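Appendix B. One record, verbatim.
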Amino acid sequence: MSEKSTKHQQSLKIPKPILITAKLLELTSSKLAMKFASKLFTSPMKYKIPKREVEMDRNSIQESLILEKIGKEIVVYHYGESDKKVLLVHGWSGRGTQLVKIADEMLKMGYSTISFDAPAHGKASGKTSNMTEFIAAILEMQEKFGPFEFAIGHSLGGMTIMNAIKRGLKVKKAVIVGSGDIVEDIMDDFIEKLGMNIAISKKMKASFEKKIGETIESYSAYIAAREVTVPVLVIHDNDDDDVPVKAAYNIHENLENGELFITNGLGHRKVLGDAKVIKKIVAFLN
């Protein structure tokens, strides 16, 4: 998809100078305001790797890969030594080691994991990215490193997995955690947090659709869900401030073979390391 669904998933504490710039541009030129918002929407933040991920980072075999179709770099992490592989997909502003607790559990189950830093994320080069590039990364990784038994994704990674299955990713089961859903809602929410008029979101949407030659709506997770026939576990926390829990219910309703698991008090990120969540994932994959 396009840069659309990408940026949504940070708890946006937008610096004041950016908010002021957004407002000034909006008063000056709606076209400049749209370009400014689009650039922000497609520019992930890079964070220092947290201690909990250091061991996975150290024990992974890592390689740089230039994606043939889009000419952008990703960094691939091979973790564990089994021929049975699980694909892990991080969210916006995430890293290939972000699902470390889940990865460690997969190793205990006898699988190895393959994950990646998407373009402009983690150790990968670049400044901007979007969901179409996440999808391109998954489909090329399937060609080079697949097949994968399962795919597990967080936030934008969940949306990406749904769209990648729709476009040819072959897995036996999938797990999506804190996944976004309707791309237009994500864009509207982003523009609202910038303090800009919703009309800017509509201009941004039109610009993205012109670039990708498809509707933004076609990348919404609930639409992809209608074409996914493999079992999918949809996990979401009631107290997720980044992605509303209604996304999980809407995705689940559109799945032919879905299971819904709703948690409380974990928010958007703690859900990835929660013991009950990991136990549920293991039971589902078994």
